[in-house]
Specification:
Layout: E1 5-6, E2 12-15, E3 22-29, E4 32-37, E5 42-50, E6 52-56, E7 59-63, E8 68-71, E9 77-81, E10 87-94, H1 96-103, E11 115-116, H2 119-131, H3 138-155, H4 167-179, H5 187-194, H6 198-209, H7 213-230, H8 235-242, H9 247-258, H10 262-274
Antiparallel strand pairs: 1-2, 2-3, 3-10, 4-9, 5-8, 5-10, 6-7, 6-9, 8-11
Helix pairs in contact: 1-3, 2-3, 4-5, 4-6, 4-7, 5-6, 7-8
Length: about 280
Amino acid sequence: MDGDTRKAQSDWISRSESTHGVERIEAFFHGNAYSMHRHDTYAIGLTLAGVQCFHYRRGLRTSLPGQTMVLHPDEVHDGQAGTNEGFRYQMIYVQPAAIQEVLGGRPLPFVEGGVTTDPRLFEATQTALRQMRGDAEPLERDDALAGLALALDNASGARQTRKSADFAAAQRAREYLHASCTHTVTLDELALVSGQDRWSLSRDFRTFYGTSPYHYLVMRRLEAARAMMLRGVSLVDAAAAAGFADQSHMTRHFRHAYGIPPARWLAMTSDRRAG
């Protein structure tokens, strides 16, 4: 991330500028990190190492790796290390208006206690921290926001009241993604093609195809790249032809999708085919 700010010799904060109502930070602290304060955003994050403690809603909370912190807008809290080793964490700050765009006017989700072990919210937070970068594609960012908002709503135990999903609209969006998978696609484009508003489409696409529009797009790109690699096209050329920004961009998504880098996958696949 850009804009590193050093608070002390061994404590540091790395932050990204706010984009479309979302800001990301990563930080490491010993001892007391923050005094009591409040802000008008959700603060949703993961402790990466150590023990992170904070006072929140009349109690002392503890966050460990594998858990998710969810601080509701305008709730007073602080932050400090729970051990002498300090703690490292990542946090994403999201404007309530951005959550409302996805949830369509439902009450803002509230997760009791400030720390949760909900697996869907943990995964959505990991995805948001990974995908909501300054250089991310517009659809990638929108997908991460939608996934985070829906997981937050689910973790809060809110009763689902939305209208029936629109299969025909999701199907039109899917066909458009197939036809345009080598190009940058925005959620606005998909909304225009499908005839739905952007966030209804994002929710319905997940209902019918089990994944987000952006992840669906990336998987089509990866399928195209794998086919080209098997035909002898170099990794760098396959990445460009499939629609990735560069080889490293493809490799990052490849590892996330398949668990191994493309060069190793190609070597193992070629050995098996040769055998």
